Structure formats: C-alpha cells, structure tokens
Amino acid sequence: MPLTPAIEEPQIHESAQGPRVTPAASRTAQTPRPVPGPRPVAAPRPGRPGPVRPAPPAQRAAQAVPGPVPAAAPATPSVSAAVPQVQLIPASAEGALDAAEEAVDLLLDTGRAPGDILVITTGDPHPWAAHELSFGEASYWAQHDAGDDVFYADAAQVQRAAGRPVVVFAANGGPAGTTADTLPVALARAGALLVVCGDVQQINSVLGAGV
Fold first, then answer.
1. pLDDT > 50? residue 68
2. 144 phi and psi, to 5 degrees?
C-alpha cells in the first residue's frame, strides 16, 4: 500500500525483510546498521587449547570407516537473505541527489565500507561521475572494478554496474519513464538495502507496478 512520509528527514533501517517501502522518520533517529559479515575465527586464549584442526585428507581417508554414504539434504534457499529492504526518502527531483548524498554520509558514519555502496542517478550524473568520465571510460570503470570506494553511475550505465550490498537510488529527473525502467534494476543490484530518494507518489506507483 503506498506510504506517505511523516516528515521530510530520512531514517535508514536495514533488516532481512523486504521488499517494502518505509517512510523516513527523523534525521535524529537511529541510523542504518551495517550488515554483519562472517566473523573471523577467534584466537585461542592463553592457557586454553585452540580449535582442533581437521586431519589432512590422506589421514582422514585412512581413519574413515567404510560404510554407506547418506544422500546430502538439498539446501533450502533463504528468501529473506536474498530480498533487500527498501527505504524511501521523500525528495523532489531537484533535491534527490542531495538526499542521496546525505544517505551515503549516514551509511558511512554508521560503519558501512565505501566499497559497499553504489549510487544510481536517473537525471544529471553525480559530479564525481562526470569528473571521472572526463578522463575516459576506462579509468572510470577501473575504479568500479576496484570496488574500494563509493561508485556513482547514471541510468545509462547501471546495466554494467555490479551489485553491492547497498544501492542508493536518486530519482533526480531524466527522460520520462527513466525511474520506472531503472528502479527495478537498482533493486536487483542491492544485496541488503535499497535507499530510494524521490517523489513519494512516483516511487509508490513504480513499486506498486511490481518492484
């Protein structure tokens, strides 16, 4: 059901549920949490034995007792882990890019690595993208492939951009239909969270069309 934002300031949440549109609450409210990654193996404490390492393959083969091999159970895919949460930040076409920049700042301030974030624009490209493209597409896409910083792409380039844990989508104008065509691609690129900055009515109409 289309949502109407309570106030103008954003609040970004992450969860395993999705996709859904959640109105922004307040800039002073809780900011987004980074998606936890795999935990490293803890070092053994002094005086306590460390984890028992498995025997080498040759030794394991010698120690194994012959017997019937049970069939492996089929893996059950996790639907919640595969569907990102969708967060809507209300903004006009003129203010969408600024709202997206603020969302990126919040994500970085709360622990997101720069390389986790992809920003997509529907209208004018982000100034960083315009600057980097002035040196040629090879240099621009080399930075995309390095994956160590926030990457900015416009609607014409989004098909080539690889997915990242967080995608920030700025509906900052562009030709008619660009938002409707690009938003589903942005959702597909988002691993955990899609932040959409744009007109509430327009975004809800796209989301209601099957995103």
1. no
2. -60, -45
